[in-house]
Structures are given as structure tokens and as C-alpha cells.
Amino acid sequence: MINYDLKKIKAIVFDVDGVLSASTIQMDEKGDPLRTINIKDGYAIQLAVKHGLQLAIMTGGHNENIRSRYEYLGVKDVYISCSMKKRTWEEFLQKYDLKEDEIIYVGDDIPDYEVMKRAGCPCCPKDACVEIKEISTYISDCKGGHGVARDILEQVMKAQGKWVLNEKAFGW
């Protein structure tokens, strides 16, 4: 369980590679990455959006398919080609007038480190690098791409009384 006051969480930011997709990525014939997606992560993401949690994607990946996938699920803030996440983090906080202690950031590797140090509740998958695990409030039992988002979002929504069987839980 996440050892943090999840009732005050207003936003959750996810990295993609190694968090929402598996760490090993196949390449197509052009050399573009073919990322995995977890269906249960997708369900939890769209449900969290319906319940008013502010979700964002911050990835160094350059593929527009990332934007398409998460916008389809309702995520309004999808930052691709985001190699300097610290700048994007600042923009995101200002855009929604968020405080850092109201945000969970889920990352797995060194490019996430600076932002995770600032997030109120940094989280990571169980196969994150050592440096990220050391600064994480919560280490999921799931590997990247294998339900990390579902694990974290479900805990947040349960703590906030939003993980219930009502009309928002059914349908996409």
C-alpha cells in the first residue's frame, strides 16, 4: 500500500517506457518502437479521468502513437519528446495551479529522477533502477507495462471513494 495521504492527490503523472510499457520494446521495420500497453492500466486511466483526477504523460519518446493512445483514454496532457521533464513539470503545475505534494509521479529511470524528487509521492514499478527505487515512496509489485498504473490509480481512487461500481465504472 502507498504510505501517503492519497486523499490530497489531485494529479498523477506517468512516464511511458518502463512504466506504462514494458522495458523491452520491439522495433518495426523502420526502427520505430512498438510499445506494449496494458488493458487494465487503460481501464484505470480512463476511469480516473472520468472521476476528475488530472492525469499527464511525460515521455522522452517521440512517437505520436503515444499521444493517440492516451488522448483516446481521456488524458489531456500528453507531453512527448520531453527530454527535460523538469521544464514540463513546471508548466503542468502552473497550468492546473497544483502543489507538488498533490502529485504522484510514476517513473522508472534516471530521466525521471529530478521530477520524482519534487513530487509529493514518487512511485515506481518493481523493475525500476536502484536510484529511482531509493527515492520512491511506493514501489509497485508490478513490473513496468504490467499493471503499474492500475495498481496506483486503484489505490488513489479507493482512498478517495471513487473506485465504486456506478455508471462511471461501466463503458468506455
Structural account:
- The chain is of the alpha/beta class and 172 residues long.
- It has 6 helices and 8 strands.
- It has a 6-stranded parallel beta sheet with strand order 5-4-1-6-7-8, with helices on both faces. It has a two-stranded antiparallel sheet with strand order 2-3.
- Helix 1 (39-50) packs parallel to helix 6 (148-159).
- The model has no long low-confidence stretch (mean pLDDT 93).
Largest sheet: 6 strands, parallel
Order of strands in the sheet with most strands: 5-4-1-6-7-8
Instruction: Give the overall silhouette.
Output: globular
Structural class: alpha/beta
The radius of gyration computed from the alpha-carbon positions, rounded to a whole number of angstroms, is 15 Å
Roughly how much helix do the residues carry, as a percent range? 25-40%
Subunit structure: Homotetramer.
InterPro entries: CMP-NeuNAc_synthase, HAD-like_sf, HAD-SF_hydro_IIIA, HAD_sf, KdsC_fam
Binding site for substrate: 17
Organism: Prevotella scopos JCM 17725
List key phrases describing it.
33% helix; CMP-NeuNAc_synthase; globular; magnesium; alpha/beta; HAD-SF_hydro_IIIA; hydrolase activity, acting on ester bonds; metal ion binding
